[in-house]
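Thread: Newbie trying to understand structure tokens

Hi all, I'm a second-year student working on a class project, and my supervisor (Dr. K.) asked me to get a predicted structure for one chain before our next meeting. I've only ever worked with sequences, so writing a 3D structure as a token string is new to me. If someone could post the tokens and maybe explain what I'm looking at, I'd be very grateful. Here's the chain:
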Amino acid sequence: CYTHSVIAQELLARVEIKADIKVGYAGWRVSAGDQDVVLHAPAPGMVNQPGGVVYHVWLEIDDRILDLTTYQLRSKAAQLDMLDGGTTTVTWCPDYLYVAKSSVSSLQHVVQMHTGMYFYKHEPSVHKLIISTAPDLDETDVNAAWMLFQNPGLEVFGPNSVSRT
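---
Reply by user tm_fold:
Sure, no problem. This is what the structure looks like when written as tokens:
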């Protein structure tokens, strides 16, 4: 999420859009079942890696949130299921979120309510920690992203020569 956000911030700056990096906690209600929540926030019973920090990174543009990682909710759910032995069904997995901050729900509502709800909370202490230890922006990655941004119809071949458009 960090890499997605810092590269997007740089691309947006190139087209004169100011976007602020935010680090904190997030969660998404991905389906209707009791366990169908993907959470990047401290929670009772959560399995943490030794020395790990639970966090998420996104952008804020004026009064809106831009999260370019929601396309990964299926894979995030699968990774979390491997850690905790759960089974998360994912029926809601948007390519990205660009939403008004006012549409953000509380963590309690995301956990207890409807598919498609999301929670974001900037946490200054976590923000400071992550930004202070984050790697420098890789100019090669930024230039590749800029080329893709300028050429949306470009066909890219990934691992195993699989075409991605």
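A couple of things are worth pointing out once you decode it. The radius of gyration is 17 Å. The chain has five helices and eight strands. Feel free to ask follow-ups in this thread.
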